[in-house]
Amino acid sequence: MVLSNSPTALDSVSILDMLSVHEHEQVLFCYDSATGLRAIIAIHNTVLGPALGGTRLWQYAEEKQALTDVLRLSRGMTFKAAISGLDLGGGKAVIIGQPTIKSEALFRRFGQFVDSLSGKYITAEDVNISVKDVELMMKETQHVVGRSESNGGSGDPSPVTAYGVYMGIKACLKHRTGSESLAQKTVLVQGTGKVGEALAKLLHHDGAKLILFDIDKERVKKVAQETNAQIIHDESEIASTPCDVYAPCALGAGLNPTTIPQLNCSIVAGAANNQLLEEKRDGQALKEKDILYAPDFLINAGGLINVSNERIGYNAQRAKHQTEGIYDTLLSVINIAEQENITPHEAALRFALDRIDRVAKINAYSKKW
Ligand code: NAD
Fold first, then answer.
1. pTM for the whole thing?
2. Measuring CA to CA, which residue among 42, 88, 76 is closest to residue 276?
3. With the CA atoms of 175, 86, 67 and 153 taken in that order, what torsion angle do they form, in degrees rounded to the nearest 10?
4. Ligand 1 midpoint to CA 188 (Å)
């Protein structure tokens, strides 16, 4: 296991410095010349249970970007599991490369690295990784969730993620307008991929007026036809388009000092991970504009809730019921934020950290005695 011999490689001091910023427990660098595997597994926190988080395949320009991404994403998984009441910690993995590097040997070799952590990290699918890829990892390790339905698993988590976002949007509307009804409410969905498409269909079913944007023109056209939606053609118009709810369902960091001043909505609630470019600053900027922001790691937890159910024997009804809990949790978080004059993101973090701290104290106590 080596990082790289290139002159641009990170030195060990800077890696440990990066881990110390958010107190990551462990990072595993994985290298295999035979298959071309170059991967990083990050375990952020295992106080509540084994670290669960998907594996992302991405062509990062530099190794440092891959490390930054996996550290950021694994930390988010800790809070997502904690606030969702799951007995899981936060972890994530990235494989560096183009989708063309995919092979049975590569995923089996990666599965061996996952297995070497003896269950401290459980993997699943993420961007550019399919259920089929996950099942190749399974040939080498049992520490995998997100198997196909035909293999006793829960299948693609995206529809459940979309359902959780839909429940979260209703909670935000309830808080803002006194009614959770979507009838005649305008919702702008950015990104009509697996989650965005399923979300658009749920919203359309409830009578919402939809505005859609995706950089994939064919995909957005198809979803717009199915949901009777209007399409935005120019990405620069997204932030300023008037709507009741803006639902970011593409990539992260879309809420930043450039976009927030332009926003023309009263609620931001979507599936994308890490929507705030800088959590504290951008969360505060939304609050000052009187825009209600649904913390991403809370509202998009449906997929994690769904796959985590495989560990106790998958039951779709139970997973759906647990995902509906996002509605009440989000309302509690919004109320705490208002009472304490903090942002919903800060209130949600507090919620998650309080649970982790309480369990850490019990763990320390039981070890002592
Ligand atoms: P996906 O890859 O199926 O869809 C993403 C879509 O976004 C694609 O159609 C892509 O063309 C589009 N896109 C990319 N950049 C864009 C841009 N700048 N503007 C508009 N569209 C753009 O991914 P997904 O599974 O639907 O996930 C969407 C988001 O939700 C991601 O941020 C993901 O991390 C997050 N998320 C997904 C799940 C899940 O269960 N799939 C769970 C939690 C969080």
1. 0.91
2. 76
3. -110
4. 14
